[in-house]
Amino acid sequence: MTPRPRPCRSAATRLLTTLIACASAEIAFARPALELIEVRAVQPAAEPPAEPPAERSEVFGGISGLAYDPRSDRWLAVRDHPAIIYELTFPPAAAGRDTPVFARRVASLPGDARDAEAVAPASDGSWFVAFESPATAVRFDHDFRHATELRAARDAGAGLPSNKSWEAAAILPSDPPSLLLISETGLAPTPDDPARIRRARAVLIDPARDAEIARGVYDISPPADFPLGGAGVTEIAPVDARRFLALERTITPTRGFDGVLFLVELTRDDGSLRFTKHRLASLRELGVTNPGNVEAMALGPRHADGSRTLVIINDDNLGAGTPPGTRAIILRLTP
């Protein structure tokens, strides 16, 4: 039998096929819009006089993680050290711009782990908190009294640099739910591999089995003034089972602090994770004049028009930050 000739695809046909594929991918991964609503100070609420003095915080600040719990309609923030959980109360929309967001102490976290960096709600009412000393994650009951460490998180954090380990954590609404942890930066650079500090470690854990599912490398985008300055992942917030928002804090000599927001798609290939990043905007581009050391971020409930409130809070290093004080940057995320 004489073989039939294969049809020849013209260059124009190949180009059209490529454009259609790219357009389809962009539609499937539509980029939401971000809009700055306002910036408000965050201040501690008055503590009851009966609270033991040993449980009081001398200086308010150091907020390094934020979460919204749809089950209880609560915003909870975590302070790094000592590890303290606060509940945030936002003023009504009609309140004056000088009305602060109030932070009420909920609990001091038990256990030996230090430097809490992220908090994430589970669907059963429990909470996960990521720590840096050591690099681990701990599951707390609904009132933060009982703690159970995830050994898989500690094992996956082995070798990460001190104070740069599990900075970001989120429970992805997969089936079953999974815990995603990402380090602030990668391992220290070497002469042979000077860029590896910009490759953060990411691990996906099944908290029900306390077992690692997969791991991969999350590439950190360099700051605008690169090679000057630095950048690191400071918070993630789940959008759905395969997408999340990522906040990358940057600092450069000319621009100071900024925070860049990305929509990130996660794909799994057996035990490997891959990330596709889509840049949305920086906080300065959105109109925040001095974002500060932004480390905490969470998505709120979905509104009638499909938009969601996005809140970002800076860690002022307990009064030593620039600018001083804790502030809530409130944005609108529209699909």
Description:
The strands form three sheets. The protein has an eight-stranded mixed sheet, with no helix packed on it. It is mostly beta strands and 335 residues long. The chain is built from two helices and 20 strands. The chain has helices at 11-28, 151-156; strands at 33-44, 63-69, 74-79, 84-89, 101-108, 114-121, 127-133, 135-140, 147-150, 166-172, 178-183, 199-206, 211-219, 230-238, 243-252, 256-269, 272-282, 294-302, 308-314, 326-334.
Write the layout of secondary structure elements.
Elements: H1 11-28, E1 33-44, E2 63-69, E3 74-79, E4 84-89, E5 101-108, E6 114-121, E7 127-133, E8 135-140, E9 147-150, H2 151-156, E10 166-172, E11 178-183, E12 199-206, E13 211-219, E14 230-238, E15 243-252, E16 256-269, E17 272-282, E18 294-302, E19 308-314, E20 326-334
Parallel strand pairs: 1-5, 13-17
Antiparallel strand pairs: 1-20, 2-3, 3-4, 4-5, 6-7, 7-8, 8-9, 10-11, 11-12, 12-13, 14-15, 15-16, 16-17, 18-19, 19-20
